[in-house]
Amino acid sequence: MKIRIRYSGPLIHFTGKRREEIVLPEQTTAMGVIRSLSRLYGPRFRGLFYRDSRRLESFFVIMRNGEVCEDYDRVLANDDEITFVAEFAGG
Amino acid sequence: MKYKGYIGRLLTVDLSSGSIDHIPLSNRQVEQFIGGRGLAADILYRRLPASVDPFSAQNDLLILTGPAAGTVFPTGSRTAVATVSPLTMSLSTGYMGGHFAPELKYAGYDGILITGRAEKPVLLQVRDGAVQLQDAAHLWGLDTQECQAEVERSLGHVKTMCIGPAGENLVRYAAIVHEQHLIGRGGAGAIMGFKNLKAIALHGTGAVEVASEPIEFLARMREMQSIIQEDPIALRFRQIGTASGMPKKNKIAALPTRNFQRGVFDHIEHFGPEPLKQMIQRYESCAHCPVSCGSVVEFDFEGEKITTERIEHESHWALGPLCDIGDLRAVLKASDRCDRLGLDTISAGNVIAFAMEAYEKGLLRESDLDGVELHWGRAASLDPLLDRIANREGIGDLLADGVRLTAEKLGGDSSHFAMHTKGLEFSAFEPRAFTGMGLNFATASRGADHNRAFTIAAEYYGILGDLDRNSHEGKPEMVKELQDFSAVIDSIIACMFTIDFGTDVQLFADAINLITGMEIDKTEYYRIGERINNLERCFNLRQGITGKDDVLPGRIREEAVVDGDSGPLDIREMLTQYYDLRGWDEFGVPTQKRLEALDLGPFSPPATEIAVR
């Protein structure tokens, strides 16, 4: 199935893109999207989500179709949009 | 003036004599400094003598726009105010959003240079080039919202900036307020108060020309607007503001709590995005900004309905976790009180937290407090303390001078926990958890200002390379680069939030070129930024602020963060590397060679004007 990805701030620098589409197996979850992108972009990308090697501890807010995604193990639907939002601003 | 985007002149107002005139902007000035912060450094370095007393008629107050103000460049319509700060004694330039800068351009000026001191309270009115000083006795004593309302009631359609009681009473961190935007840091409001200038009201019907063809210009501006507006961070800012980052920082024990004693705030569930979201009534925007990160919130507080601006990360933190206060509504109410009194929330929160610790340690006693309770977490004390500070009453008279001077007066070991650099109180970033921010706090030209180099994204997300937030490796390079980058943003006077949206130097260089007709590339962009940072350094050296002031407080140098993994921070090695990168000598003084390379040869302060190292 097709998943649309949107990147913000620091991830735009990492990936060189603001958006992309990836094709993933059916029954993919948000966690699966993170794993797939980590394989694609390598250890530095992975390190943003797995701060302590094995445990997912993301300092991005992950949104699914504009709503905050609380459950990373929930199966996604075709054409879902996953957005990674960095939240470390001051002001 | 061969460049577009500028009107080409500054209004000059001598409050001592009442004389009103104007001075031209030169091509050289805008080529070298662009506008805003850079231009302020150039003008004030040339005008002011060494060791200016901020509370003297010699100190100027300089209000500036940038070339983008009044054009549709997104976020570029902000206002800068520069002066010698009564809090830090350094050159201090602050910025605010709203709608003041475009109106100033439309009224026929790139800025206003205010000199001297009026004998009685005055209002400065500028209408399409016609300038008047008017009696303001009837405004003196009004809070900032009352004052703006009264000015607009009597003068009609104007944009107003003013001070509140805090500025009138020379509180060293008094703010200037326009709508509900503040020039908060550094005490420019106190300089306005010293000058007896209560308010400035503008109305303009002019226009701003740009260099590029209109169709091309609008097309490029739409592109830039899309880049900014469509970034998901922009949407989050609009929905919930920047306080959304607080829970994340708390998770890594990097949310300074109890005056930087701790890194974890036990009441975090009451703060952050979700509680605020419920209160939002409507969204608001600064001029020509597609983000619209402002919003108005409404809530009940002790039987009173409060309508105020949703507060951002710094105000949330300074009046909340820093003081170990877990009552969000009390924090919102106190922030509103700061806005009305005309107080910088960051400094105010720091001063209150400092006082709480001083009380805890017995350096302040009950008899000093006029009945105000100073226990950690005492939300009910916020408003009474703020009122006392703004009016310099009782304990407020002590606290009104900021943590540095208050610690000097209290003595004991209080300087150890007076959280400032060069007199400017810390903002919401734990230097021991983000060592680059620690280096920036120590070296930024006006003290501990996170916006001089917002290192957090780089230190946490690694956008400038593989950087570990606890390590020192790579940090001097990162801090220098970000300080130079930010200096030009502050001179265009774009919103610093734009750096969070995946923008880069090229976007800002393109904006300058499209608007003005200059031809700046990335190399020249950074050179301008470096020039500005060096000139500010020279200014500060003339004020007696030297390398000995590039230090962090004892708490940061000697203590680990309780409940976190961050140990004490020793910046000396990073500082040596930073000086070297900057082309400064071992004492942090720019070398003649570096100044000449930046076309600053004539600006180098004579050796006799530099304090003994």
Q: How does this structure look, described?
A:
The complex is a heterodimer of chains A (91) and B (613). Chain A is α+β, with helices and mostly antiparallel strands and 91 residues long. Chain A has a single domain (2-86), classed as Ubiquitin-like (UB roll), CATH 3.10.20.30. Helices cover 29% and strands 26% of the residues of chain A. Chain A has a five-stranded mixed β-sheet. In chain A, strand 3 and strand 4 form a beta hairpin. In chain A, helix 2 runs antiparallel to helix 3. In chain B, 61% of the residues are buried. A six-stranded mixed β-sheet of chain B has the order 2-1-6-3-4-5. A four-stranded mixed β-sheet of chain B has the order 8-7-12-9. Chain B contains 24 helices and 17 strands. In chain B, helix 1 (27-33) crosses helix 2 (36-47), helix 2 (36-47) crosses helix 19 (475-492) and helix 19 (475-492) crosses helix 21 (522-542). In chain B, a hairpin with a 6-residue loop joins strand 4 (79-84) and strand 5. Chain B is α+β, with helices and mostly antiparallel strands and 613 residues long. Chain A binds chain B through residues 6-14, 18, 44, 47-48, 57, 59, 61, 63, 83-91, and chain B through 227, 230-233, 235-237, 241-242, 244-245, 248-249, 251, 312-314, 427-429, 450-451, 454, 456-457, 460-463, 466, 496-497, 500-502.
Q: By helix and strand content of chain A, what is the structural category?
A: alpha+beta
Q: What Rg of chain A do the Cα atoms give?
A: 12 Å
Query: What percent of residues of chain B are in strands?
Result: 5-15%
Q: Enumerate the spans of chain A where pLDDT stays under 50 for 5 or more consecutive residues.
A: none
How many beta-strand runs of chain B? 17
Radius of gyration of chain B: 22 Å
The CATH topology of chain A, please?
Ubiquitin-like (UB roll)
Please state the structural category of chain B.
Answer: alpha+beta
Please, how many helices of chain B?
24
Largest sheet of chain A: 5 strands, mixed
CATH topology of the domain at 9-203 in chain B: Aldehyde Ferredoxin Oxidoreductase,  A, domain 1
Strand order of the largest sheet of chain A: 2-1-5-3-4
- The CATH superfamily of the domain at 9-203 in chain B bears the name Aldehyde ferredoxin oxidoreductase, N-terminal domain
